[in-house]
User: Fold Methylase of polypeptide subunit release factors from Actinopolyspora biskrensis.
Amino acid sequence: MSIDDSMNAGAGAGAGATSMETNTHDLFGLEGCPQRINRSLSLNLTDHTYLPKAKDPRRDWVASVALPALRSYAAVHGESSVDTFATIGTGAGTDVLAAIETLNPSTALVTDLHEEVVEHAVDNIRRNVPDSSMHTVEGYVGHLGEPLTAHSGTIDLLYENLPNIPAPTHVDLAAGQATSSFFDTSALAGVPAGAHRYLLALHCAMLNQARTLLSPSGRVVCSIGARAPLTEILDVLNSTGFDTELLGYTWKIQSEPEEVIGGYVDQERKGGGPFHFYPVDALARVLSPYSPQQAAGQAKKIEQDLAGSAFDVDTAFEAVKRGDPVGHTVVAVQAAPVD
Ligand SMILES: C[S@@+](CC[C@H](N)C(=O)[O-])C[C@H]1O[C@@H](n2cnc3c(N)ncnc32)[C@H](O)[C@@H]1O
Assistant:
């Protein structure tokens, strides 16, 4: 279904709807004034909305991954290379605000699995730009790119930061933010075998669908927590028929750590991986000399430099249970369909 951009603020809010007042410095770590979005940000959220980690950009996906990746994209392809931008699984809509700031698309399409998440995201985007008539914002509800077939045009840039972990039986995907970390494995036809082993299946399923949604020069940017070796991640994505290039290599403190690392422990027991995490101080030490864009050019070397500090999944799980901060590297991969 489609939710157009004339929806009222808060429409469809379920129990647990809440709001967050923040600003582009606290949320995105932006110094100075943003160019195309408001400096003060007001976000309406629901129980199902992936929570922006305001005041801690290193825990926030948009601040630490999407924004630098979209900046790199603008640097490589030009600030006016994207007329229509789409996010698959938008959460609060802050990834679209980052796209408006960096690439100024005239049309932004947002999707998520939960209707009220999409309603609020559309409204959050419109409310946090100085002139909402400058951007058409359309919301769509459904699995991956399926609802976007209702949109009449093609997409120049599709961004995704989808979950990696197949939902175990004890996880209720209808509850809280479960769909931010876990996914339903029932609708994943045609993904390569390595995608299951390295927990990249939803990203590959999205790439399979993207082919028919993209404009002739359109691309996908996949944001992926890199708990598998870099070469395996890129090989798996390439095997879907896309050319890939690293746009960014950075790190994040593991959010929802017990839930997520516990999920990796279970998947490794079932034959996945092997996966790895790192202590936060090692990530900060090794990666701090580089911007995400610079690190992308040195990613293999950085991965080797980090290897001596890597935690296997059990060590990482023990560390978070003790309260020690654990993180992981993240790749922002640009993917273009091979003809
Ligand atoms: C980790 S959150 C990312 C939110 C936001 N894009 C960001 O980067 O902060 C993943 C989002 O994807 C959504 N999602 C999960 N599975 C999905 C699917 N099959 N189709 C569409 N959205 C999905 C979740 O509901 C959640 O909002």
Q: What stands out?
A: The longest strand covers residues 214-226. Residues 50, 61-62, 66, 87-91, 95, 111-113, 143-144, 161-163, 179-180, 183 surround S-adenosylmethionine (CB under 6 Å). The chain has one domain: 2-337.
